[in-house]
Design goal:
Length: 268
């Protein structure tokens, strides 16, 4: 069993209309290539590296114009598309959610509010964003179970292990991984570790551009990079294979050999 995967890497603009057009262009290209699962980066409504508070002002509800137009555009496509957008919350201080959404044929089929906020390396995502409190449900795409993670979640192995024990065949990670000393190395090591320790696929899609590294990639269950992008905008397409998962778990039965139970959230 195989799944054709697209990595839609791009630099997020300041205006949602421009980002909508980029998404639609990539969706058209991916659909023409028979892609089953297309993944965009994190926070694709709007980005301004000189104005981190833009995520609050640019946030839209999931029935707002950005998602409404994107859903309408997807109606004739069987392809599943994942991304994250900032969504207004009911918090009195005006903070927003960082929500990963999965869409298919004009509908939102799953939502996940980012659990781990990026309060590290002199940045503080929690200034504008509220963390979620729920482990995401798996998304089924053509016989593959997909686990949803977002950016900084990559540094916390508990979530990936929980998703795989829940039945995930592949982990999807939209990201806006910030450049910096050793950061590209962290991206490579952590993404590989999450795939290898869980004997699953890791599909990590990073935003490109002036601030972020790009370098989107697919890593197979034995830690082999099977597809990778550069630091520039591009659509990369590859295929993942369930037989590879079966093989990896036969020769490396780490899940079967584990001595710990399934991780749970502190709030569960």
């Amino acid at each position: 069993m195989k799944l054709k995967v697209g990595l839609g890497q791009f630099s997020v603009a300041k205006e949602w209309q421009e980002n909508l057009q980029i998404c639609q262009d990539y969706m058209s290209q991916a659909n023409e290539q028979g892609v089953d699962l297309l993944v965009f980066p994190e926070g694709i409504l709007a980005r301004d590296i000189a104005d981190p508070d833009l995520v609050r002002r640019a946030a839209q509800p999931l029935n707002g114009p950005f998602m409404t137009e994107l859903l309408a555009f997807s109606q004739s496509m069987t392809m599943t598309v994942l991304m994250t957008v900032h969504v207004p919350s009911e918090a009195e201080d005006g903070k927003v959610w960082n929500v990963q959404v999965a869409i298919r044929q004009g509908e939102i089929i799953s939502e996940y509010k980012k659990l781990h906020l990026y309060d590290a390396f002199s940045m503080k995502e929690s200034t504008n964003v509220i963390p979620g409190d729920d482990v995401p449900e798996l998304v089924e795409v053509n016989g593959f179970n997909i686990g949803m993670m977002t950016c900084y979640d990559l540094r916390f192995p508990e979530l990936s292990r929980r998703l795989v024990l829940d039945g995930a065949d592949a982990l999807v990670l939209p990201a806006a991984w910030v450049k910096g000393p050793l950061k590209e190395h962290h991206w490579d090591v952590l993404a590989t570790a999450r795939a290898l320790e869980n004997t699953c696929y890791m599909i990590a899609v990073g935003e490109s551009g002036e601030r972020n590294i790009g370098l989107s990639k697919v890593i197979d269950p034995l830690g082999v990079v099977t597809c990778s992008a550069s630091e520039q905008d591009e659509l990369a397409v590859t295929t993942i294979n369930k037989e590879r998962i079966v093989h990896a778990r036969r020769v490396l039965p780490a899940l079967e050999n584990r001595r710990f139970s399934s991780p749970t959230l502190m709030s569960e």
